Amino acid sequence: MFKAIIFDVDGTLSETEEIHRKAFNKAFEMKNLPWHWDLPAYRQLLRVSGGKERIRHFMETHDSHRLATARVDDWILDLHRCKTRFYTQMIEAGEAGLRPGIREFIIEAAAKGIRLAIATTTSMPNVEALLHSAFDGEGVALFEVICAGDSVPNKKPAPDIFLLALEMLGLGASDCVAIEDSRNGLLSAYNAGIATIVTPSIFTDDQSFDEATLVTKDLTGLSLATAFATTCGRKKAGG
Ligand code: XBP
Ligand code: MG
């Protein structure tokens, strides 16, 4: 049996990307920017991991003259902080619940002494707000290791965040399984050598997941034994 499960957050624990999208749009409105990310646009923008990186990408492709703004990195950081405030307010208001099967899967793993970790591109305040809200204030304590956002130089699909989680767990890739929702996340875990189960989310259900050991609608009814069995024929980088 694997010794640890490493969870992604957005789209995996909860369908939070729709709340991120609303938070971005609220921040654009507050800053009087003529920007609005609708659902189709956001589905495309999600191919860029990281909110700050996503804002910069949008400027490069849709509003490049703003890149000439003095101290543009500080300007993006300020806009992103505004977005994060809106996001955490909505999460604290209970706007995001756990995806089907997540709670039961986590409780079964914890009861069997399997260590739990998080490897996410989102910002730490967002992770803490979601775990606090979704697990009645006990969520952060459930996860021994939480690796988030800017703790690594290269975001998903780079393997950095999963490699950091392995280092902090003191485990090898073959001791773990990752749970992800997106191709960027799958590639990040796969290139860290970790067998990965994918539960596509509302924004990633059109993506390919060939490198996954299992693709399932959600974790409803997935036992740890079945999850483990899928990793035994593990697909990992380097064969
Ligand atoms: C998904 C992301 C994040 C969120 C927005 O992270 O790519 O950037 O979309 O959060 P995950 P920030 O790895 O959990 O799927 O604005 O804080 O980046
Ligand atoms: Mg995700």
Task: Report on the architecture of this protein.
Helices cover 45% and strands 10% of the residues. It is an alpha/beta fold. It is globular and about 55 Å long. The mean pLDDT is 95. The protein has a six-stranded parallel sheet. Strand 4, helix 9 (183-191) and strand 5 (195-198) form a beta-alpha-beta unit. Helix 1 (17-30) crosses helix 4 (72-92). The chain contains ten helices and six strands. The chain binds xylulose-1,5-bisphosphate and magnesium ion. Xylulose-1,5-bisphosphate (XBP) is lined by residues 8-11, 17, 20, 49-51, 120-123, 126, 149, 156, 182, 185. Xylulose-1,5-bisphosphate (XBP) binds at residues 8-11, 17, 20, 49-51, 120-123, 126, 149, 156, 182, 185.
Notable characteristics:
single chain; 239 residues; alpha/beta; six-stranded parallel sheet; 10 helices; 45% helix; binds xylulose-1,5-bisphosphate; binds magnesium ion
- Protein structure class: alpha/beta
What fraction, in percent, of the residue positions are helical?
A: 40-55%
Overall pLDDT confidence: 95
Q: Could you spell the SSE succession in H and E letters?
A: EHHHHHEHHEHEHEEH
Please state how the strands of the largest beta sheet are arranged side by side. 3-2-1-4-5-6
How would you sum up the global shape?
globular
- Describe the sheet with the most strands: 6 strands, parallel
Oligomer: single chain
Distance between the termini: 21 Å
